[in-house]
Design brief:
Elements: H1 2-38, E1 51-57, E2 64-70, H2 74-83, H3 102-108, H4 112-121, E3 122-126, E4 129-130, E5 132-135, H5 141-144, E6 146-151, E7 158-163, E8 175-178, E9 184-187, E10 193-197, H6 201-209
Parallel strand pairs: 1-8
Antiparallel strand pairs: 1-2, 2-6, 3-4, 3-7, 5-6, 7-10, 8-9
Length: 210
């Protein structure tokens, strides 16, 4: 009786390692597929070069505030274009990395979605009243950024300017801002509005006429 069972026992010993191997392969396959399914299509990374804004009064009009926005890392511009739906998701790798190409800026610059985004994220107010913004067509978006002209209800001496660009992608983004007379600040989610002294409206109007 025992001799008749030995072949079966030996056979089972040979099958067990195969079953274990199949189980491991199946588990690894499941993990790999799960990673592909759960991978984020895009992930902002705000720890490179910061974006900037430069703020000034229009030299010819004391009621116009000009804000020039420039992205920090060019790959951030690509990520923004994907988030706005201007660029396809294929511009971003599975690990969230994006690689800037000159065609990205050419697609984003004239986009109405891009202009609407800037006007939503950058605001100018004087004496509690909002200023109407117009995004000027950028000539070299990647190199020099884009300028927004905000026309205010009256000549501007001081303005409260809000900047929230890219913080909707990741709240860790920062914006280095410069204004007249060397004034500077850093915008963040904790401080997205800052009061700027832009000079005497009377002197600005006199300089504009001259």
């Amino acid at each position: 009786m025992l001799d008749s069972l030995r072949p079966v026992s030996l056979s089972m010993r040979g099958v067990r390692p195969v079953l274990r191997m199949l189980a491991v392969v199946g588990a690894l396959t499941a993990i790999g597929l799960g990673a592909l399914v759960t991978a984020e299509p895009a992930e902002a990374h705000p720890f490179g070069d910061p974006q900037t804004v430069a703020i000034r009064l229009d030299p010819a009009r004391a009621d116009v505030v000009r804000v020039r926005w420039k992205v920090g890392g060019l790959d951030d511009l690509t990520l923004l274009g994907v988030a706005l739906g201007v660029l396809p998701q294929s511009r971003v790798m599975l690990d969230g990395a994006a690689f800037f190409e000159p065609a990205d800026a050419s697609a984003i610059g004239p986009s109405a979605k891009f202009s609407a985004y800037l006007l939503q994220q950058i605001k100018v107010r004087t004496n509690g009243r909002g200023c109407a913004g117009i995004v000027e067509p950028p000539k070299q978006l990647a190199k020099t950024g884009v300028e927004i002209a905000f026309t205010c209800p009256e000549p501007v001496a001081k303005a409260d300017i809000t900047v929230r660009t890219l913080t909707d992608l990741n709240p860790a983004y920062r914006t280095l801002a410069t204004g007249p007379n060397g004034e500077r600040t850093v915008y963040s989610t904790e401080k997205d509005t800052y009061g700027w002294s832009l000079g005497s409206p009377t002197s600005r109007q006199r300089n504009g006429r001259s």
